[in-house]
Amino acid sequence: MSSIGRASTLIAAGTLVSRLTGFLRSVVLVAAVGAVGSRAADAFTVANQLPNNLYAIISTGLLTAVVVPQIVQAASHADGGRAFISKLFTLGTVALVVTTAIGTIAAPLLVQLYASQFTPEQFALATAFAYWCIPQLLFYGLYALLGEILNARRVYGPFTWAPIANNIVSIAGFGAFIAIFGGPVTEVTDWTPTMIALLAGTATLGIVVQAVVLMVFWVRSGLHLRPDFAWRGVGLRNIGRLAGWTFLMVVVGQIAGIVQSQVMSVVSGEAPAATVAANAWLLYMLPFSVFVLSIGTTYFTQLSEHAAAGRDEDVRADIARSIRLLGLFMVISTAVLAAAAVPASRIFTTTADGAVDASWVLLAFLIGLIPQTVLFIIGRVFYAYNDTRTPFLFTLVQAGIVMITAALALNLPTAFVTAGIALGQSLAVCVQLALATWFLRRRLSRIGIRRWMPSLALFAAAAVPAGIVGWGVYLLSGADTGWMVESQLTGALGSALIGIVALAVYVGILALLRVPELATAWQTVRRLISRR
C-alpha cells in the first residue's frame, strides 16, 4: 500500500484542491450568467462542452484505455520507450491540430448537433461562444497526452495539480466580467461581442495555462522528446487496432450525449437544462474525482503491469482491494450528497426555488454513483488486458438505454425532464455494470465478488442511518425555507455541516463493527492532510 498510497494521496490532494477551486469557478460563472431558466447560461454550457466532448474521444477513447498499457510495455525497450513516445507524441499533436481546426470551422454545425431546439438568438450566442471555446481542444489534448505519459512513468502529481491554474485564471476572468458588466446576464439579446470574448476567451485561456503548467514538469519524466514522423515500426498499428473499438465506444457515448443535450435544449429557459445538469454532474464528480480517479489511476498502472505479466491472481486482488477501499468512501459520499441535495444545489443556483428544482437532477445522478465506481475498476481490467472490444459491447447497451430514457423523459413535466435524463443515465450504468461483471467473469473465470460485495453491503448498512441523520439536520435547519438555502454561501456551509454530521455517524458505526478498511482509509486521509 505504501507506493500506491502515497501516489493516491498526492492525486487525491491535488484533485480535492482542483475540485474546490472548480466549485468556486462555477459559483462565479453562475453569478455571471445565471443557471435555472437562463438561456445565456445554457448557450455557454453547450458551447463550452463542445471541446470537452471532442476531447473525450481522445482522452477516454485513446489515452487512458490504450496508451498507458502500451507505454508500460514499451518501457522494456532498450531505450526505455523514448522512441515510441516521441512518435506517439508527434502523431497525437498532428491529430490534435487538424481536429481542432476542423472543429472550429464546423462550430455552427456542432451547436446545431447538440442544441437544435435553441431559439435563433440563443443559437447565435452559442455559436459565438463556440468559436472561442473549441480551440480548447488542442490544449486539452496536449494536457491529456503529456499527463497520461507521466502517469505511466509513475509521475502523478503535475497531471492532477495543473487544473488548479486553469480554475484560478477562470475565476479571475469571470470575476472581471461581473465587475465590468454586472450579473447575472441571462438574456441572450443583452450580450455584446466584447462580453462574449471576455467570458469565453477566459475559459479558453485557462485551458492553455493548464497545458503550459504541465509542460514545465515534463522534465521529471526523464524523457527527451523530439518530432518524429516515422510512425512505423513501434507498434502503432497495434494501437490503432485497440483504439478502433474504443473510438467506436466513445462515439456511441457521444451520440447518446447528443440525444440528451437535444432533449434538454427543448426545456432551456423554462426549467433545469444543460447548465443545471453540468453543475449537478460537477457535484457528482467531486467524490468520484477525489477518491475513484486518484486511487483508481494508480491501481490502473499496477493492473496493467500485473496483466502484462500474466499474474491473474494479482489482478483479482487488485480488483478486490480497490473496490473495497473506494466503496468505503463512495457509499458515504452518496449518502451525504443525497441528504444535502438541496443546499448543495443552492451553491450553483441564484434562488432557493431553483435549488429545489436542481436537486432532483443531482439525486437522479447519485443513483449511479456506486455502480459507476465499481464499473471504473472493472472496465480498466479489460483495458489492462488490451481488450477494448468487450467494453464497446456493454457500452453499446448502456448508450441505447440512455437514448431511450432521454427520449421518454420528454413525457415528464417540464420541471423534471432533465432529472428524468439523469435517472436514465444512472439506470443505464447499473445495466452496464451487470454486463461488464458477467463478461469479466467469463474472462478470468472468477473475479472475487465475494471479496468485495459483502464489504459494500456493510458500508451501505452504515451509510443509511448516517444519511438519515444528515437529512434530519437539514430538516431542523428549516428545510426548503431555512437558512441553508438563503444564499450560495449558506448552501455551502449547510452542505458541509450535513456532511460532517453524517460522516461522524458513519465512521462511528464502522468503528464499532471493526471494519478493516477504515484503518486504510484513515491512513489515506492523514496523508492527504499532511500533503496539504
From TrEMBL:
GO CC terms: plasma membrane
Chain ranges passing through the membrane: 54-76, 88-111, 123-146, 158-183, 195-219, 239-261, 281-301, 322-342, 362-385, 392-410, 416-440, 452-477, 489-513
Topology relative to the membrane: Multi-pass membrane protein
Gene Ontology annotations of biological process type: lipid translocation; peptidoglycan biosynthetic process; regulation of cell shape
UniProt superkingdom: Bacteria
GO molecular function annotation: lipid-linked peptidoglycan transporter activity
A Pfam family the protein falls into: MurJ
Subcellular location: Cell membrane
Coarse class of the protein's main subcellular location: membrane
Keywords: Cell membrane, Cell shape, Membrane, Peptidoglycan synthesis, Transmembrane, Transmembrane helix
Coiled coil feature spans: none
UniProt name for this protein: Murein biosynthesis integral membrane protein MurJ
Origin organism lineage: Bacteria, Bacillati, Actinomycetota, Actinomycetes, Micrococcales
Encoding gene, per UniProt annotation: murJ
